[in-house]
Amino acid sequence: MAFTVLDNAREIAEAFAALHRTLTSGARVHRGDIGYQGASGKAELHWQPAAGFWVCMDPVEEPIRNRYWCAYGLGDPATGPGNIVVEVNPPTSGIDRRCAGAFVRDDDGVVHLAHNGRIGGGRFGIGKAAFWEHYQGQPATVRWGTRGDVSQMVVIGRVDSPELLPALAAFVREVDRIKRVVVGVERRTAPAGGPGPARVAEVPPRTSGGDVRAITDALLALGKKLDAERPEGLQLIPTLSPESARLVVEDPFAFCLGASLDRGIPAEVAWTFPFWIKEELGHLDPHRIASMGLDELRKVLQALPRKPRYFRDAPRTVKEMARLVVEVGGGDASALWRGKTAAEVERLFRSVHGVGSGIASMVVILLEKVYKLRFTDLDHRKMNVKPDVHVIRVLGRLGVLSSGGAAGGCRATDASSQEGAAIAATRAMHPEYPGALDTPLWVIGREWCDALSPRCADCPMGHVCARTIFR
Q1: Do residues 313 and 353 lie in contact, with contact meaning Cβ atoms separated by under 8 Å?
Q2: What is the pLDDT of residue 197?
Q3: Its pTM surpasses 0.85
Q4: Which residues, in sequence order, are CB contacts of 26 under 8 Å at separation 6+?
């Protein structure tokens, strides 16, 4: 059977209305926590107990205008936080291959929900290529509107049929299985002669957890190992595509934009923003961006596949960064650090709206690791970690911080106290260079110490970790 992607806004809206009715019919509504990469928030979840999955059509962050947001997960959300397994987001109009979801019509005129295999999750190796490598179902050939080109998609089921529910449940479970295979939790189901099981970290014999000296030594050893494996420092600037990574490394202004927007959002999204902005504008010229109005920049950011976490502040951040590059370097962003001391670099970045000391310190560390700069005035004793959610979570689970995020057995419940406690703890752990703990803590948080599903057995810190996982 042949399928064609819907591109008419009215037909897409009708298809989504039918999908919404199917997904919500007989569902239990639960208002609770929903977990996505790097953060969490409150949302309305529709739980289908017979099928065993839930769906959220209530965006946690800013309103989404260019697609219908539909996030799916497994397990009753009333019993714990809902962790997103996969999003199937059809565009609101036209053809948009950046959206993983789509509505397709078969030869009989029946409309189905489909997915192109683009999956996320914030871990290395999870993506569209991995999906199609491990997918055990049968893909369908789909024609993209009147354009004539074709590609493969998973046609999940009719949007107006109750049979969609078990089909969707099976698809969500398949995506969950694929992610587990990629990160090494499950073995690959490959034919004889195919690829073997995914490599997991080598875990030394376990010692008593909570030993701060042993924890520090293990973190520093992991940091050296990571630097040796990726000497260019790119583990610190992950992106969603190779093109995005090349842009950040080769274009200093892209580096500045990515760093300044790395706030409260998965790092791979933040560092992809420069690529998306360039695609949307057709250029990444600091002169032209500096001359744009805030409303113009807001429209540009609104059109991106993902939006900055602090969306109201982001246009001003982008504009001020561009203006700084123009004023200091005449459009050459490398002038922000070329021939300057570390203190001067930090001061320049902190002058941009929304850029605090954590990002400014991170920039100096990245300039050393990625651009191989050496600052003569750099006092490593004053170089702190960037206390994001990964760093704070890992320090807590290692037993260095309390469940509230405070050092010394105290509890700190607000974000600023957690960040301050994380900085104080790492300064006490390694006063010679607290910032040296940033990379290993951050990588552990992304690769092993997941907020909802930590892989303790595979973690390279398993032999020293207190495994203090707070629920």
Answers
A1: yes
A2: 33
A3: no
A4: 48
